[in-house]
Specification:
heterodimer; A: 158 residues; alpha+beta; Glutaredoxin; four-stranded mixed β-sheet; 7 helices; B: 600 residues; alpha/beta; Rossmann fold; 2 domains; four-stranded parallel β-sheet
Chain lengths: 158, 600
């Protein structure tokens, strides 16, 4: 969170993207995609600018942003924790692991920790069923976990 | 229109080919249940209550959006259909907050009616309830998402008809909710509080912020002199709450009921409507004769005013500076009336009965007071008045007609028609015409500005050698269309009337609920407006400047229209408002800089 994403440069990039797509049918989706890339997320300021330029109500844009999981309202944290909730992990008790991490970093699935350092995601199968239940923290992979493993793992990142 | 023949429940039906199955069935008296369907507003086939069997289709189809075709065979009453409709309804009910007994919509809820009609006797599923928060922070609208059934009627009316777009679907799947962007409360959004979402809602998810308790309290307080004023449109709809047909005028019974409730004086906002015409008419003449900002736009509708402040601040200089009739009335009661009756204005409590929920927020605007004394103390809707009458156990049907208190209760037909779209314009023209022609004209009905068909209404009137071009829009969607044309220089007018709601105040957000099923058969806007035009025709005096009480008020107190005193009491100002509140200064600067560099 420390880095300021709402810079003149970023808004200029966004303005350009809006200009390129304005007037086209279905302009909103490509603009949101680019906006997510430029800012790393789609906070109210970004959505407001898109709303005013495209003359689409903010509530409609917010509806689209919250419908698709690839869009986020807050910037991702330094560490992105993905907890696999695919079938294999789920039957191997992935849910209590997710709950435990959520408790430790004080973040709800899909949200950030209060200091913005961590982002917690519940994901679909990541194709590592042999390691179930499995989580990833950025590029690090942790498998065959039990709830009690969590505090020790998290210590490394806190 | 070309016709097609189809068979519905073994009956041959011939209908225009652009009909839906629902409309075709209706035309031969077959009643298909609906829930999300709201004629001309929400025709999306979302709730799946209107399912029917159509031969050749594997699945049941939603009749509200399914077009008819030649030779089609439809069945609306088979076991498969009944079971499917019932299961759908049971699922909707499974996670609905079923506190019907204490719900605002108890006994006029479309979901409740449907449960009875489809003979739901058990809800076999107990759905998990979402944790929701009731938003009651605005002065006008309360939102209770636990009652919401996601039909989308409010979303459509707000976005498509009103072009405001405060509410929309957010999140996905089980977590879907209807609400404002970024989970903001209504008072943090550019909501204009027209309340069309409330009158579109089939259930109790949207309602007005009630002020009934404060009114009861005032009535109980022996220290207070409690005065009530009723807006023109209330008389055209209140009767519906007591079983009268839509469009019944109940002026006399309403006044009688208010007297029974214990108000010290019952005055009519129509008097202030006449006063508004005097002020606004002369303001218009002044602007035309002295090169003021034109077109002048009416300022009676607080929903429209908020729409203008948020969306078209460049038109603020065009707004008439006249306070709305509700506030003119309040200001006159607490000055002229208080002085004449020798009552301390601090001890006067003014209650307005309005067809509107935006009036509640208007009454809270900080500038609407004179020397620290609020113009209006409490605003209740037509629906709230009906609740009070019921709670007081007054037998409305048996009431003898009563008359308004004469002190400030006199009004003309011109004041009455304020409640329908085009009414303010017509009332103003009646007065402006007489002034410019220096005559007492007999031709006073300006029918071109009446009615609800065909969008923006325009007229050209030649008065005293001047051609005056006027336009009327109702509903903020239409207002937007009109203002965009004026802005682009495509149209030029002298005077524009804008009302926030389609049809004007008669179909305001505070009026009695009318089920979607009834709205399929009749245009409520027309029926209720008829009641007002009828009262106008029956009036002995039909021009605002003929109101002798208004004359007396000018003679004894105000001097002449737009005098210094009139300005102090009866005029106001407006402010440009930023949508969704101000954003951080440096961000705003970054956005502005980006926008200007783009233009280069």
């Amino acid at each position: 969170m420390a880095t300021n994403i709402l810079t003149v440069e970023n808004f200029q990039k966004l303005a350009k993207v809006i200009e390129e797509n304005k007037g086209r049918q279905g302009a909103l989706m490509p603009i949101l995609h680019e906006g997510q890339k430029i800012f790393g997320c789609l906070p109210i300021e970004v959505q407001k600018m898109i709303s005013e330029e495209l003359e689409i109500p903010l509530s409609e844009i917010y509806g689209v942003v919250t419908f698709y999981s690839q869009f986020s309202l807050e910037p991702k944290g330094e560490y992105v924790i993905s907890v696999c909730l695919g079938t294999a992990c789920y039957v191997k008790n992935a849910q209590p692991i997710l709950d435990k991490i959520s408790e430790v970093i004080e973040a709800k699935p899909g949200g950030n920790s209060p200091d913005g350092k961590f982002t917690l995601l519940a994901t679909r199968c990541i194709g590592a069923c042999g390691l179930a239940p499995v989580i990833t923290i950025n590029e690090d992979v942790y498998g065959r976990l039990v709830v009690d493993d969590i505090p020790k793992i998290m210590e490394k990142y806190l | 229109m070309e016709k097609v023949t189809l068979t519905i429940d073994n009956m041959k039906v011939e209908v225009p080919k652009d009909y839906t199955v629902l409309e075709a069935a209706k035309s031969v008296g077959i009643d298909i249940p609906t829930l999300c369907f709201l004629k001309d507003i929400n025709e999306v086939g979302a709730c799946r209550i209107c399912l029917v069997e159509i031969e050749g289709n594997r699945n049941l189809q939603t009749s509200c959006v399914y077009p008819v075709s030649e030779g089609m065979v439809v069945k609306t009453n088979t076991e498969k259909v009944r079971d499917a409709r019932k299961s759908t309804l049971e699922l909707i009910l499974s996670n609905h907050n079923r506190e019907c007994l204490t719900c605002n919509r108890n006994r006029n809820c479309e979901l409740q009616t449907l449960s009875e009609e489809l003979n739901v006797t058990d809800i076999p599923f107990q759905g998990e309830l979402l944790e929701t928060v009731v938003d009651n922070k605005s002065h006008s609208i309360v939102r209770d998402p636990s009652k919401c059934i996601l039909c989308g009627r409010c979303v459509s009316v707000c976005k498509n008809q009103q072009k405001v777009g405060i509410l929309d679907f957010t999140n996905r799947g089980y977590y879907t909710q209807v609400g404002p962007a970024f989970e903001k409360t209504m008072d943090e959004t550019p909501c204009i509080y027209c309340g069309q979402c409330i009158v579109s809602c089939p259930v109790g998810a949207l309602r007005e912020k009630e002020d009934i308790d404060r009114v009861w309290e005032a009535l109980e307080d022996p220290e207070l002199h409690v005065i009530v004023q009723t807006a023109p449109a209330v008389r055209a709809a209140l009767g519906e709450e007591f079983g009268y047909p839509i469009g019944t005028r109940v002026t006399g019974k309403m006044v009688a009921a208010l007297k029974r409730l214990g108000f010290d004086k019952v005055f009519d906002t129509d008097f202030a409507a006449d006063l508004t015409i005097m002020e606004e008419g002369h303001e218009l003449l002044d602007r035309i004769q002295n090169g003021g900002v034109l077109p002048m736009i009416t300022s009676c509708s607080p929903g429209w005013i908020r729409f203008c402040e948020f969306n078209y601040p460049e038109f603020i200089p065009n707004l008439s500076t006249c306070k709305s009739p509700q506030h003119m009335m309040g200001a006159i009661i607490k000055s002229y009336y208080a002085e004449k009756q020798n009552i301390d204005p601090e001890k006067i409590f003014v209650v307005s009965v309005m067809p509107c929920v935006s009036k509640k927020t208007e009454a809270s605007r900080e500038e609407l007071e004179v020397k620290g004394i609020r113009d209006v103390d409490a605003v209740i809707t037509t629906r709230e008045l009906a609740k009070m009458i019921k709670e007081a156990r007054i037998n409305f049907d048996k009431l003898e007609d009563a008359e308004y208190d004469p002190t400030l209760g006199m009004y003309t037909g011109a004041g009455v028609i304020f409640g329908a779209t085009g009414g303010v314009m017509e009332a103003a023209l009646r007065t402006v015409a007489d002034v410019l022609e220096e005559d007492d004209l007999e031709e006073i009905e300006y029918t071109a500005v009446r009615g609800v068909d065909g969008g923006i209404k325009e007229a050209e009137v030649v008065l005293g050698g001047n051609t005056i071009r006027v336009a009327v829009a109702h509903g903020t969607g239409m207002a937007k269309e009109l203002l965009d044309m004026v802005k682009a220089g495509e149209k030029e007018y002298h005077f524009i009337e804008i009302m926030g709601c389609s049809g004007g105040c008669v179909t305001g957000g505070g009026q009695p609920h009318v089920p979607a099923k009834v709205k399929m058969d009749m245009d409520v806007r027309i029926e209720r407006a008829k009641a007002l035009y009828e009262e106008d025709e029956l009036s002995r005096l039909r021009k605002s400047h003929e109101n002798t009480l208004v004359h007396k008020l000018y003679e004894e107190y105000l001097g002449k229209p737009n005098s210094h005193k009139a300005h102090e009491l009866l005029h106001t100002s407006y402010v440009a408002r930023e949508k969704y509140g101000p954003i951080r200064e440096e961000v705003a600067m970054a956005m502005a800089e980006a926008a200007t560099s783009k233009d280069k």
